[in-house]
Amino acid sequence: MLNIEEIRKDFPILSRTVYNRPLVYLDNAATTQKPRAVVEAMTDEYYSVNANVHRGVHYLSQQATELHEQARANVQEFINARSEAEIIFTRGTTESLNLVAFSFGEAFLKEGDEVLVSVMEHHSNIVPWQMLRERKGIVLKVIPMTDEGEIDLETYKNLFSPRTRLVCIAHVSNVLGTVNPVKEMTAIAHTHGAKVLVDGAQSVPHRRVDVQDIDCDFLTFSGHKIYGPTGIGVLYGREELLEKMPPYQGGGEMIARVSFEKTTYERLPFKFEAGTPDFVGSHALAVALDYVRGIGQDIIAAHEADLTRYAMEQMSLIPGMKIYGTAREKDAVISFNVGDIHPLDLGTLLDRLGIAIRTGHHCAQPLMARCGVESMARASFALYNTRAEVDALVAGIDRVRKMF
Ligand code: 7TS
Fold this sequence. Notes:
- The structure is a single chain.
- This protein has helices at 4-9, 36-48, 59-79, 93-108, 127-136, 153-158, 182-191, 211-214, 239-244, 279-295, 297-316, 343-352, 365-371, 387-403, and strands spanning 17-18, 21-22, 24-25, 87-90, 114-118, 139-143, 164-170, 195-199, 218-222, 233-237, 255-258, 263-265, 321-324, 333-338, 355-356, 358-360, 376-380.
- The chain is an alpha/beta fold.
- The strands form five sheets. The protein has a seven-stranded mixed sheet with strand order 4-10-9-8-7-5-6, sandwiched between helices. Strands 13-14-17-16 form a four-stranded antiparallel sheet, with helices on one face.
- α11 (297-316) packs parallel to α14 (387-403).
- The two termini are 40 Å apart.
- The mean pLDDT is 97.
- Ligand 7TS is lined by residues 29-30, 92-94, 122, 124-125, 170, 174, 199, 201-202, 222, 358, 362-363.
C-alpha cells in the first residue's frame, strides 16, 4: 500500500495553510499538485540545458532535443502507442480536441456526416464539434445517459447511421466520475466504420490507459492533471489517420521545404507541431509520468478507489445530500448538492475551513441541464489524499449544513 505521509512530503504545497488551517486540496480534477521532482526538472532544465530544439547543431540544443524526444518515447510507452509518430505534443486536452476537430474534419467530414458526442462531455469536447458544424454542416448527435450517469448503450447502438464518422467520448466524466466502457463503445463504432476519440483528461491520471487495448483512434490528455506542468498535453492518433490529416497550424518545425510556390510538410509527428514546442514542459511531463510509474498505477488506482468508496459512504450519511453519478464503475470524482444550499456558498464556507473544492457547472452545462441543476459542488481525489481529508470534508459540509 501507499505510504501517504512520505508521498505528501514530495508535494511541498500540501504542507501550507490557508486561513491558518491545513490545506485540504480536493480539486484534483481541475488540476493536480506537483511533486518536487517535476518542479526541479523544470528549474534544472532552464538553468542548465535551455536551448531551442530540433534546430541547433550546438550541444545545448541537442541535449534539449534529446530530453524532448525522450519525453515523447516516455508518453508512447505510458499509453502503449505503437510508435512515437503517434504522439503529438499540444498545450493540453483542449488543444488536442480542437486539433482533431479541425484536421480530421478537414480530411474526412462532409456536410451531413454525423459525429456522436455524449451528454456528459466537457465543453472542450462539445464546442469544437459545434464550430465544425458551423463550418461544414456536419450533424451532431448526443449519446444519452441513464439517471445513474451511465452511457445508455442500447440507445448508443441505435444512433449509428451510414453517415456516422466519429464518436467522441470522455473515458471518465469530470463531473460524475463515471468510467465509460470505451473499449466496448469503440468496438461498436468500428463495426459501423466510425472512428473513436477518447478524451482521457480524467482517466490517464488515475488508471492504466492502453490505446491498443481500447483500440481507439484518438486519445487526449493534459499534463497538469497528472502531476505535470500546465501548458503541455498530448494527442495520440492512429498513424494512418494522422498521415491523411492536414496540419492544424503552419509555421516553423512543421515544414519539410518552403517556397512561395509550394510548401511540403514534415513527417509525423512534427507536421502537427508548428512553432517552438514546450520542450521544458514535455520533459517535466515525462518526469511526472516516471513519478506515477514509480509509485505504481495500480496502487494509485486502488488507493483512490478506496477513498472514493469511503467518501461516498460517509457523504451519503449527511442529511439532504444528493450525489450526482452513481455508476457501477466510478472514478475519484464526487459531485453533489446539499439541500437548498447554493454550491457557491458551500464552496466559499468550506474554503474558510481550508478545504478546496470546485463549484459551478464544471464546464459541462449540457450535463447540468440533464441533471436538472445549474451547478454542483465537487470533490475530486488524487494519490496524496487521505481518509482524514475525507473526514474533514464531511465534517465541513455538516457544519455548513447546520448553519443554514
Ligand atoms: N476534458 C475533460 C474530461 C476535462 O475534465 C477537462 C478539464 C478537459 C477536457 C479540458 O482540459 P484542459 O487541460 O485542456 O483544460 N476539466 C476541468 C475540470 O473539471 N475543472 O477544471 C478543468
